[in-house]
Recover the amino acids of this structure.
């Protein structure tokens, strides 16, 4: 872990001790390749929207990902930021919205710069953070069809959960300062 990420982790308050421990462990999961792990962490930190956390994760991810993978993880976060809102609406509203074309550009989803399964894994992590059931189900199904196992999927969602929780703690601490 880079000094920046380690300092951020060490600076978490006592009431977030479990998150401090989990942040270290989820960033060392053997179920994921280095690209899958750091792409998931970067996409999740982008979705969690906490600047210090994103900066720390990005600093580490830059040293572990190709420029294409670094960009693709951020692209996954950007696309899911749009898609998760739209498809949550479709799911919640019901009716015939699911039968209507979305008319939203999603070219990067069809042709990512990295292995498609990795991009789907990052999209799943962001969709879990953003709470879009329809997108979580869709990405999980595609991942399973591509041969990604439940251990890998669960590992990516663990990263998303911890990154999101750390961002929440950091935001709360900043608000109380």
């Amino acid at each position: 872990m880079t000094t920046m990420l380690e300092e951020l982790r060490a600076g978490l308050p006592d009431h977030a001790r479990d998150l401090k421990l989990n942040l270290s462990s989820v960033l060392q999961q053997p179920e994921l390749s280095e690209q899958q792990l750091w792409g998931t962490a970067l996409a999740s930190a982008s979705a969690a929207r906490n600047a210090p956390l994103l900066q720390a994760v990005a600093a580490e991810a830059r040293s572990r990902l190709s420029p294409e993978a670094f960009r693709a993880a951020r692209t996954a976060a950007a696309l899911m930021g749009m898609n998760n809102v739209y498809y949550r609406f479709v799911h919640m509203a019901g009716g015939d919205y699911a039968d209507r074309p979305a008319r939203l550009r999603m070219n990067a989803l069809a042709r990512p710069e990295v292995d498609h399964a990795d991009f789907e894994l990052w999209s799943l992590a962001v969709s879990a953070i953003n709470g879009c059931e329809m997108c979580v189900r869709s990405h999980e199904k595609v991942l399973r069809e591509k041969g990604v196992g439940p251990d890998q999927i669960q590992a990516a969602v663990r990263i998303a959960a911890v990154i999101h929780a750390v961002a929440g703690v950091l935001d709360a601490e900043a608000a109380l300062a």
Remarks:
- The radius of gyration is 16 Å.
